[in-house]
Amino acid sequence: MGVTDPAGPVMDRDEVDRALARLGQEHEAIETSLLALQDHAGRRLLEGADLTGVTKERWAAAEASITLLWAYFDAYTATLRSAREIRARRRWSSREDLMELTGLLRGDTVTVPGNGKLSEQFSLGTLVDRMNELYASSLDMVVAADAVWSALPARIDLLAAELQRTRTLAHSVGVRPGEHPAGDDLERITRTLTRLREDVVSDPLAFWVPAEGSSAPGGGRPDTTVYDREARALEDVRREIDAVLTVRQDAEARLIRLRDVLSRADRTLAEARTARGEVLAKIAATEVPVVSGPPTVLQEQLAMAAEYRRQAQWHRLSPLLESLEQKAEDELLRARESLTAVTAPLAVRAELRGRLDAYKAKVARHGLAEDPLLVERYDAARRMLWSAPCDLRVAEQAVLRYQHAAAEQLGAPYGGPQDRRSESS
Asked: Which positions are tagged coiled coil (predicted)?
């Protein structure tokens, strides 16, 4: 939209003709802009919408501005028409005509409806400035509302469709409100999106962020904060449901692995209990830890997991399987540690037997197998190690005495701590 020159002295004919030509071009530009505003999709939507909040307030003001714009344009048109009629009276305008034309084209001679007054008078230039201001503010409001309506409802509808698919899938795997946190999240997201769409449709300007430092009409962007937050929440729910689906696909294999791990733990504990009886019978004066039985709670939970699978309660099976898998591994480790602790005395006896036989072989290689002292000490240590119950402490001393005697016969020093213990005994 154009701007006129400031008022000046009486215009000559050429100045009048140039001004009329420029004003005619301005008139066409103004009319084109007003018609475009009138036909703008955003304006038509605003006109038929049930508005609320800030949009309702601003649209009421914009409607008044648009009405006033047309009134201003009509006054502008009438004044321009009058000026053209005066100029068309004669080819060579008289001074009186030029004075009248100067008043029309540069003076405050345009009477328009007033804002809170009966009427106001402006020059054509001032009137164009006023129209520019009203047009810019009205167009800004219309473009902003249209931008929000063009962007957000469609995106919300797409997200809502994805939400519905996710709800259907969630229901199929037992993720329901009140039974699983993800089901509660889906209900909350549904309520939020429904409310968000209603708010966007009725009050689009509440979701508009103006561009800082921009004076262009419609400068800014739709505020997608709430939409983005719910889209992220839905993505989190989808990942949770994917995890549940994975459980559904792998449940049988995981249950089989769990049964195998718990079975191995039970067998290991049974072996530990058998070994404990053997240790108590064969080893004397030794503290042998008690072997506990398999925890019944794990078997109960395993049965519960199988029931969840049978009833397709995947959302409950998922966390239970994760917990059971860790507990089963812990139970197998505990069983192995128990077996190791129980059989430790047998391992000590086996180590002493191996050491005794190793020294006997060494003595034999040096031709001392028939040495009376060595034979005596070997037989004493062997009786202790191969008799039941075996006193490991006494047997160890006997082995050390044999080692010491063998070292002396072989001429090798034997001054380790164990040897000193044997000498002191």
From this structure: 234-268
Q: Are 232 and 283 in contact (CB under 8 A)?
A: no
Q: Would you say 263 and 256 are in contact if contact means Cβ atoms under 8 Å apart?
A: no
Do residues 8 and 109 make contact, with C-beta atoms less than 8 angstroms apart?
Answer: no
Helix H or strand E segment including 416 = none
pTM, rounded to two decimals? 0.58
Does the structure show a pLDDT above 60 at 218? yes
Contact yes or no for 338/200 (Cβ under 8 A):
no
Directed axis angle between helix 124-172 and helix 13-39, to 10°?
20
Model confidence at 158: pLDDT above 70: yes
pLDDT tens per residue, range 117-143: 667 788 888 888 888 899 999 999 999
Is 50 in contact with 202 (CB distance < 8 Å)? yes
Task: Specify whether 39 is located in the same domain as 114.
Answer: yes
Q: If you write DSSP's letter for every residue of 22-89 in order, what string do you get?
A: HHHHHHHHHHHHHHHHHH-HHHHHHHHS---HHHHHHHHHHHHHHHHHHHHHHHHHHHHHHHHHHHTS
User: What pLDDT does residue 4 have?
Assistant: 38
Is 8 a domain residue?
Answer: no
Residue 299 lies in a domain: yes
Note whether 49 and 205 are within 8 A (CB).
Answer: no
Total count of domains within the chain: 4
